[in-house]
Amino acid sequence: MGMRPVAAQWFEILTPREDLTRALRCLAGTGAVELQTHSQATSRAQLPDLHHGLDEYSELSRRYGDWWPAPAPQPVETAAEPAEQLRRALEVLEEWAKDAAPVIAELQNTRRMRHDLETLRRAVSVEDGGLPDLHQLAASGPYLAGRLYEVPMEAVIEQVPPSVLLQPVRTETERFLFAVGVKDQIEMLDEYLSTLKARPLELPRWLPGTPEEAVAAIDQRVEYADKAVQRLENSLREIHEKHGLADALGRLRLLDWYVTHVPELPVTERFAWITGWTNDPDATHVDARLHDSGINYLLRLGEPPADVARPMVLRNPPWARPFELFAALLGTPGDQDVDPSRIVAFLAPLMFGYMFGDVGQGGVLLAAGLLLRKKLPVLGLLVPGGISAIIFGFVFGSVFGSEQIIPALWVHPIEEPLPVLAASLIFGFLVVTLGLALDAHQCHWRGDDMEFWGARLGLPMTYFGILFAIVFTIVPEGRLPIQPAWGIWYAMLGTVWFIAGYALRARPNALPAAGNAAGEYIETVLQLLVNTISFVRVGAFALAHGGLSAAIVGMADSVESLAGKAAVMTLGNALIIGLEGLVVSIQTTRLVLFEFFIRFLRSSARSFKPLPTPDDEEPGKQRRES
C-alpha cells in the first residue's frame, strides 16, 4: 500500500438472465463493485415497465407506507424475472389494500378520537379552573353554542364577539378556551381563532357536569378506545400475514434498488452481461462470493473501454483512512497524484494539538471521539486530535486552563510568545517544502523529470534563497560567517532557472513562453511566501488558547466559594472546548487545504463508489430524486 492511488479493475460477468437479480445483490454485498454499463448490444433490460410498476408501488407507499411492516430480507436464492417479481408483489399489495383500507380508516378515527379525549381530559382536570357546567355547555342549543378550543400559548386574542362568554384555562404547557354564546357569533369566533391556529375540540353530549365526573367518564372511554386500537392493530397484523406483505415489500425494495442502480443492462434472450469496476485487484473476493451463492456465471478481468474514466482507489492503512476526508474535500487524487492521507494523519493532529494544547481539554476530546465515532465517523478525528492536544498540554504545562498543576516541558505560551510563534513559522516552512517535494515527485510519476530539473527547480531555489536571506538578516552580524546576499544571489539564480528553462523548452516560441513563465513565477513565489507566513496563525491560536484559559482561571480565582470556582471552571472549559475547538478545527482544515495541498494536489480523477445493498438506503429515494 503506497501513497499513489490505484485505478480500479475492470470486470465483466456473464450470467443467465434468471440469475441477474441474485447476481447483482451478491455483488452489492461484497462492497467491492461499482457498476458501469458499456456494451454495443442492442438489447437492454426492459426497465421502463419496471419504472411504471414501481411508480404504482410509490403511490401505494405514500398512502399506506406508515402502516406497513418492515420489508423482509430477501434471500440470495430468490430467482425470477424482475418483471414477474414486480407483478406478483404488486398483486399482493393491491389485495392487501382492499382488506386493510377499512381497518386503517377505523384505526385512524379511533386514534384521533383517543387523542382528543386525552386533550379534553387535560382541559377539564385543571385545578381551580372555574369551569362552567360541562354537560350544559356541551348540550347548549339550538340558539346557543358551546365550544372548547386548544389555543397556542403565544396567541393574542383581541377580537371577541360581544355576546360570547370566555373561560380561559392554562396548564404549564397548554392553553384552552371554553366559550358559550349565540350560535352565529360563536361561528364568527371559530373563524377568528382559526387564524390564530387554534384547534376546536368536540364537547360530547355525554360529558357530565362536574370536572371530577367528566374525568372519570373520559377515562372510561379512553379505556374503550385503547381496547379498540389493540383489536384493530391485531386485525391489521393478521391481514399483513394473510397476504405475505413483508415478503412482498422486501421484493419490491430489492426491485426498487435494482432500477435505481442498474438502469441499463445488456441482455439477450437467455443471458445478461454485468460490467463495471472492482477495488479487489484480482477479484478473488468477488469470485468467491458469486461461487458461494450458487449463481451460474463467467467472470473476466480485462482492460476497460477506451471511452470510460477509471475510478481511483485509495489504499491506506486503517489509521490513515479517516484522513482521506481532507483530500476528498477537493476531489479525488489521480493515478499521477500523491495520496496525502498518511501525511495529513500526522500534520493535522500536530497542528490541532499545538493550537489546543491542554491535557484536560484534550482528554475530553479524546473521550468524545471514542464514544461518538461509531455514530458519526467524522468525529473519530477527535481521537488523534485529542491525543495531540494532551501531548502539547504537557509541553505547555496546561491542565483545564490552569498552568499551576504541572510544569511546562517547554514554555508557557502567554509568558514566552516569541518562541511559540517562531516554531509555527518553522513548521510552516517545512510543510511548504514538503509540498514542493511532493510536486517534484509527481513530475517524476508523469514522466516530466526534465520539466522539473530543467525549469520548476527554480521555484524551490528562489524560495530557499529568500528565506535564507531573511533569516541571516535577522541573525546578529558576526555570529556566523554567512552573508544574506548569498541567499539573494541564489534566489536570482532560481529566477533565471525557471524562466529560461520554460523558454528553452518552448523553442522556437521562447519569448512568449518566457513571458508566461515570468508571470507564473511571480505569482507562485508570492504564494509560497504567503503560505509560509500563514502558519504563524498556528502559534497565534496557541497564544489565544492560553489567553482564554488564563481569563477563565482569573475569573474562577475571583470567586470566593468553592462551588462558584468549580462552576466557573466547568463552564469556561466547556466554552473553550466547544467554541475554540470548532475554530481550531476549521483553521487546521484551511491550512491543510489551502497552504499545503495547493502546492501539489490536482484531484482530477473520480472516486470509486461501491454499489450499495438494498438495505443501505431508503427504498425509492434515489429513483425519486432522479
Quick summary:
With 626 residues, the chain is of the alpha+beta class.
Structure description:
- The chain has 626 residues and is of the alpha+beta class.
- Among the domains are: 108 residues, Alpha-Beta Plaits, CATH 3.30.70; 279 residues, no CATH class.
- It is built from 20 helices and eleven strands.
- The strands form three sheets. Strands 3-8-2-9 form a four-stranded antiparallel β-sheet, with helices on one face.
- A hairpin with a 4-residue loop joins strand 5 and strand 6.
- The radius of gyration is 36 Å and the shape is flat.
- The C terminus is likely disordered.
Residue share in helix: 55-70%
Q: Helix count?
A: 20
Report, as a whole number of angstroms, the end-to-end distance: 37 Å
Whole-number mean pLDDT: 86
Sheet with the most strands: spatial strand order: 3-8-2-9
Q: Give the overall shape, derived from the CA principal axes.
A: flat
Radius of gyration: 36 Å
Number of strands: 11
What summary fits the major beta sheet? Answer: 4 strands, antiparallel
Which consecutive residue ranges, at least 5 long each, have pLDDT under 50?
A: 621-626
Strand content bin? 5-15%
Structural class: alpha+beta
